[in-house]
Known about the structure:
Shape: globular
CATH topology: Globin-like
Oligomer: single chain
GO molecular function: heme binding; metal ion binding; oxygen binding
Protein name: Group 1 truncated hemoglobin
Binding site for heme: 74
Order of helices and strands: HHHHHHHH
CATH architecture: Orthogonal Bundle
CATH superfamily: Globins
Largest sheet: none
Organism: Alcanivorax sediminis
Number of helices: 8
InterPro entries: Globin-like_sf, Globin/Proto, Hemoglobin_trunc
Helix content: 55-70%
Amino acid sequence: MDSPSLYERMGGRNGIRAITEKAVANHFSNPVISTRFTNAHMSQKEMVASATEFFCTGLSGVETYEGKSMPDAHAGMNITAAELVAALDDILDAMKSEGLGDLEQAEVLKILYDMKPEILGK
């Protein structure tokens, strides 16, 4: 029998959505990055929906992501490494608050950190 995928271990779509809702809310209140989100072209609800689809698709879910690629979504934003770390901290806090295990947290953070060049444009 195959072991459960990261998608399944995170609680599937509902678990990922709960984490995404908390992470986006954290971004809006994080003094390091909040202006990036309050001045964005998407509402908080739209960000949650888009990020949920992105993560579900990327984590072996059945969803289909139709949004922008990471480079396109972050093009011209000149995001700093400190801002990326702040966003990752928000996501880590969201995963912890939803009771996600240490192994799953580490796997998600590695996936996201590996996207650093695409997010920072470097």
